[in-house]
Amino acid sequence: LHPTLSSGRAIFEHISEPAVRCLVDHWLREVSLGLVSLIHSCAPTAVVLGGGIFQQDGLVAEVDCRLRPLLKPSFRQYRLLKAGLGNHAGMMGAGFLAKKLFDSLYCKEK
User: Which residue, 72, 80, 78, is CA-closest to 45?
Assistant: First the structure.
């Protein structure tokens, strides 16, 4: 594939190309298979998919369509959700932890 396809954004700009679509389809299958293991092991009521890739329109629904048939029927009662913070979740989490550490060091109750 193109060396310029170095990010999710770049990949989805070329999704209409057959080779790129094939690569994305393979990746979606791998994600779905990984989620099968997670759901069968933990039986969560919800699974949240985050990061910039899953902000693409319809991608979470596409994973869900691939995932459900792979699950045992008794494990199909879950919700597959797109993370609300998208690609900013890591930064938000780091900021939260930094504030918590700062408060514990400098804002002690008297």
Answer: 78
Q: Token match 């979740």: residue?
A: 89
d(CA 20, CA 29): 14
* pLDDT 10s digits, 10-50: 888 888 999 999 999 999 999 999 999 999 999 999 999 98
- Give the burial class of 55: count Cβ atoms within 10 A of its Cβ; 0-12 exposed, 13-18 middle, 19 or more buried: middle
What is the reported pTM? 0.75
Both structure tokens of 30: 């791998």
Share of the chain above pLDDT 90, in %: 59
Identity of the amino acid at 56: Q
Cβ density class 16-51: b for 16+ within 10 Å, e for less:
eeeebeebbeeebeebbeebbeebeeeeeeebebbe
SS3 (DSSP) at 78: coil
